[in-house]
Design a protein that fits this description.
The chain is 46% helix and 15% strand. By secondary structure, it is of the alpha+beta class. β2 and β3 form a beta hairpin.
């Protein structure tokens, strides 16, 4: 039986629900949500490890990381480990805030949000 979410409250709208436009469309896409979740749990992750953790192709990871970077959510640092090129990703402060806000909206939809803990 579906859970009754009529009592869930959005963080900003006060209307008793989270509106779909309150979810971050950039982060909500499954690959980008996965990238943001990994980066939220760690200070930084290199390209090869991130690709392996998420079982992504080079093109898929590059495309989605690029979207997050263009929106200011992820920073990529290119350098070398010895003579080998190395790209490292990390969430920016704006990315951490956006991810936390998105997760909180999802928690509200699940009936586990801040307003439900009062």
């Amino acid at each position: 039986m579906p859970r009754d979410l009529s009592g869930a409250r959005g963080a900003d709208n006060g209307a008793g629900a989270v509106k779909p436009d309150e979810l971050d469309r950039v982060i909500h896409e499954p690959v980008r949500l996965s990238i943001a979740a990994v980066l939220a749990a760690r200070r930084e992750v290199d390209y090869l490890e991130l690709r392996s953790l998420l079982a992504l192709t080079d093109g898929n990871l590059a495309a989605h990381a690029g979207v997050l970077e263009r929106h200011g959510y992820v920073a990529a640092e290119k350098g070398f480990a010895g003579k080998r090129p190395r790209t490292t990703y990390r969430l920016t402060p704006a990315g951490r805030r956006a991810f936390a806000r998105h997760v909180e909206r999802l928690r509200v939809l699940l009936g586990e949000g801040e307003r439900d803990r009062r």
